[in-house]
């Protein structure tokens, strides 16, 4: 017996115990109308994860019943994103593969008096639907004979009617307390070209009708979906029972993943792309899988996050910082360390001549990661924020007449400061303590501050990109997303980096000492370091 770690697995175990299922089959069912986002990562985690755990199979099922919004571009992107996430599907199928069968299923329901062609407009159907407290009213077309319905449905398919002129509805119960059971529309007329079936069809099944049929045809045992489909389950079951499916797939709903300050609605993400508010679906600020990948976030960290958030029955919102913590944890264990100075201030060691190589630990958390040689010389850059002309109490970085350790190298003393015309420090003049070399320090001097640096002569000029959330935070909550859009969410500047960084392979993540995790890339031949995640949790810091 496999140990259940969430309520879905408990249900599956019960079904196995009761002999209802032997092999587990799930499916991941994206609609190809946009790119996958971090919410889909959870759905993948659940569907692929459970199949894996039970030695079963998970299909990739494209829910393409909405031709006006779906595109091959999205199909291709979705396939790539799933693979990048580390999942592989058993079979790839499309609702459109089954359009013939779904059509025949509808015809069967008509013959059995379980569906009828309705001439009411969408508006009229809505008006007669009733409310949660009032029953709906039956359509005047509800009592059409099976023969008439079949003829009209055939004519619908033949293209005799315009969009919306007629539809096919299931004949269930207009007084059902569940609105989805009040004679729901199961087929509509839509003269649109489908990205796979072209103009072969002008009638398309509705999601609620197509989905249970497609699940059944794929041999899905457990159809795992998000909570908003809970109210649709009676209809899912009605379709299965009415069409005599055996064994009937079982729909189980789980909570959506919601993350603070993160909009996952495809509609909104699409708008950002179409209005050029971001650089594309793969913009590093986007919560899309392709955006996260471009950001340099490892798939392992996303999977780890989904696993830690868990599978629950009730909706809740997860802090974005929790996601960042998972990313940081992964990168801390895996990323090489390196040094870059974002706001360079010259540091000259007046009593040092020539140069030498100092040992730099590649990743102190990783056993056997070893060391790398880094050039040290008389002329360095340090971070301008690591020097203060007017230091507050307990300032342990560099100040006039103060001491600081240059990471992995020597202790230096600041003897003098040169100022620019605005009175800001433009160069600090130091002397170093020769006996204080890291690893063989016999100087006896205790310093509290350790700062990073780069060798001025060999430093590479790199472009740095830093990101903030696309949405301004909680103070703006409740306001329109457009108003919350953070136009300053991307900051670009140049910096000085170890040449090692400029030469690193594209895509390599680094921990820049005391700064954050950055991904090395190249743009027009120039080195770029783009922020993956800050070193510390900036959450709630203004
Ligand atoms: P959106 O509202 O962003 O367009 P969707 O639900 O319409 O998302 P689909 O392509 O239909 O997107 O979703 C494929 C699967 O992923 C569905 O089973 C859906 O329930 C699931 N899914 C989508 N968003 C989330 C989420 N935030 N958390 C968990 N699962 C999700
Ligand atoms: Mg959807």
Account of the protein in words:
The chain has 14 helices and 29 strands. The strands form 8 sheets. Strands 12-27-28-29-25-26-13 form a 7-stranded mixed β-sheet. The longest helix is centred in the N-terminal third of the chain and has 16 residues, at 38-53. The two termini are 50 Å apart. Adenosine-5'-triphosphate is lined by residues 29-31, 39-40, 42-43, 225-226, 256-257, 264-266.
Which secondary structure elements does this structure contain, and how are they paired or packed?
Blueprint: H1 7-17, E1 25-28, H2 38-53, E2 57-62, H3 72-84, E3 92-94, H4 99-111, E4 115-118, H5 122-128, H6 146-158, E5 167-170, E6 185-189, E7 203-205, H7 207-217, E8 222-226, H8 233-242, E9 250-254, E10 257-259, H9 266-274, H10 289-295, H11 299-309, E11 316-318, H12 320-334, E12 336-338, E13 340-341, E14 344-349, E15 355-361, E16 371-377, E17 379-383, E18 387-388, E19 398-399, E20 403-406, E21 411-419, E22 425-432, E23 450-451, E24 453-455, E25 460-467, H13 481-484, E26 490-497, H14 499-503, E27 509-512, E28 516-523, E29 526-534
Parallel strand pairs: 1-2, 2-3, 8-9, 10-11, 12-27, 14-22, 18-19, 20-23, 25-29
Antiparallel strand pairs: 4-5, 5-6, 6-7, 13-26, 14-17, 15-16, 17-24, 20-21, 21-22, 25-26, 27-28, 28-29
This protein binds adenosine-5'-triphosphate and magnesium ion.
Fill in the keyword field for this structure:
single chain, 542 residues, alpha/beta, 7-stranded mixed sheet, 29 strands, 27% helix, binds adenosine-5'-triphosphate, binds magnesium ion
């Amino acid at each position: 017996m496999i140990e259940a770690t969430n309520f879905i697995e408990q249900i599956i175990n019960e079904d196995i115990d009761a002999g209802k299922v032997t092999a587990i089959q799930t499916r991941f069912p994206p609609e190809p109308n946009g790119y996958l986002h971090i919410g889909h990562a959870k759905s993948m985690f659940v569907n692929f994860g459970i199949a894996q755990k039970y030695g079963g199979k998970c299909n990739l099922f494209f829910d393409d019943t909405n031709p006006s919004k779906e595109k091959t571009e999205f199909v291709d992107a979705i396939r790539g994103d799933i693979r990048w996430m580390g999942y592989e599907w058993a079979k790839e199928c499309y609702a459109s593969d089954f359009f013939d069968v779904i059509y025949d299923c509808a015809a069967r329901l008509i013959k059995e008096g379980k569906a009828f062609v309705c001439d009411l407009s969408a508006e009229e159907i809505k008006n007669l639907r009733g409310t949660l407290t009032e029953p709906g009213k039956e359509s005047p077309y509800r009592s059409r004979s099976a023969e008439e319905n079949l003829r009209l449905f055939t004519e619908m398919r033949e293209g005799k009617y315009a969009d919306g002129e007629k539809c096919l509805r299931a004949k269930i119960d207009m007084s059902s307390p569940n609105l989805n059971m009040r004679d729901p529309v199961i087929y509509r007329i839509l003269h649109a070209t489908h990205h796979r079936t072209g103009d072969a069809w002008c009638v398309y099944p509705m999601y609620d009708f197509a989905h249970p049929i497609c699940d059944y045809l794929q041999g899905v045992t457990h159809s795992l979906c998000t909570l908003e489909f809970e109210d649709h389950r009676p209809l899912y079951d009605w379709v299965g029972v009415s069409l005599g499916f055996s064994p009937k797939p079982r729909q189980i709903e789980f909570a959506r993943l919601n993350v603070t300050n993160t909009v996952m609605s495809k509609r909104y993400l699409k708008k950002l792309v179409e209005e050029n508010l971001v650089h594309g679906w793969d913009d590093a600020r986007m919560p899309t899988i392709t955006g996260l990948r471009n950001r340099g976030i490892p798939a392992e960290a996303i999977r780890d996050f989904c696993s830690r958030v868990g599978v629950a029955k009730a909706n809740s919102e997860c802090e974005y910082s929790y996601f960042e913590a998972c990313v940081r944890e992964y990168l801390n264990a895996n990323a090489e360390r390196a040094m870059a100075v974002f706001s360079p201030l010259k540091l000259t060691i007046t009593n040092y001549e020539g140069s030498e190589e100092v040992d730099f630990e590649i990743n102190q958390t990783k056993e056997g990661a070893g060391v790398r040689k880094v050039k040290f010389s008389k002329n360095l850059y340090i971070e301008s924020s690591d020097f203060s002309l007017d230091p507050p109490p307990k300032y342990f970085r560099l100040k006039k007449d103060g001491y600081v350790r240059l990471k992995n190298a020597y202790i230096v003393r600041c003897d003098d400061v040169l100022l620019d015309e605005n009175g800001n420090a433009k160069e600090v003049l130091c002397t170093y303590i020769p006996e204080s070399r890291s690893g063989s320090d016999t100087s006896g001097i205790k310093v509290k501050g350790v700062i990073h640096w780069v060798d001025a002569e060999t430093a590479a000029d790199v472009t740095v990109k830093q990101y903030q959330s696309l949405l301004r935070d909680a103070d703006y909550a409740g306001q329109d997303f457009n108003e919350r859009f953070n136009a300053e969410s991307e900051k670009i500047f140049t910096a000085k980096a170890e040449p090692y960084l400029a030469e690193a392979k594209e895509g390599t993540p680094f921990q820049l000492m005391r700064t954050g995790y950055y991904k090395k890339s190249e743009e027009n031949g120039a080195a770029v370091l783009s922020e993956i995640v800050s070193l510390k949790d900036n959450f709630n810091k203004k």
